[in-house]
Design goal:
Length: about 170
């Protein structure tokens, strides 16, 4: 079995499945998967294998949701070819995800002016957080004092589901 131009290792064949270890592959590229039987016959799997993130296999429960938000340009993952589906996403990151989903991946919000006491202009995602509030999508996490709680977490997998279901992405 080969994937792209690399041979698989640790191949085991069962009655109904083939398991193999393949080398790390670049994200976001369709890789041809070629299977050769012991008698020399074989072929390339029709759809190949799409590897957007090394840590979100097609069997992962959030795979289709994650792939949808990647295709829409909402996220490029958490780095190193990974999406980190079980890692927390902060409310600050959530603001960026939501507005990119609502307004497009190229959208740039207006500069922050200091709406929330815990989000200073120039801090991470401040522009996005204030734009989210200006659109009445959030009032923050506390009205008095006016707080957004930018470091409070959600999981990235939960956020992927929320975005896809809210905005009906494919």
């Amino acid at each position: 079995m080969t994937v792209g131009s690399s041979a698989a290792t640790g191949v085991s064949v069962g009655a109904r499945q083939i398991a193999a270890t393949v080398p790390a592959l670049p994200a976001g590229k369709v890789h041809a998967v070629r299977v050769t039987n012991p008698d020399g016959r074989g072929g390339v799997l029709a759809n190949g294998w799409l590897a957007d993130f090394l840590d979100v296999s097609p069997a992962h429960p959030f795979h289709d949701f994650v792939e949808s938000i990647v295709r829409a340009g909402i996220t490029s993952g958490c780095g190193g070819g990974n999406y980190c589906p079980d890692s927390a996403v902060t409310r600050a990151q959530m603001a960026v995800f939501l507005l990119k989903t609502l307004l497009g991946s190229a959208y740039v919000p207006p500069a922050a002016v200091g709406v929330f006491e815990d989000v200073s202009p120039g801090s991470f995602a401040a522009d996005w957080i204030e734009d989210l509030a200006a659109r009445s999508i959030t009032a923050g996490c506390s009205v008095s004092p006016s707080l957004y709680c930018p470091t409070n977490p959600n999981t990235r997998g939960q956020m992927a589901v929320f975005i896809v279901k809210t905005f009906r992405l494919p």
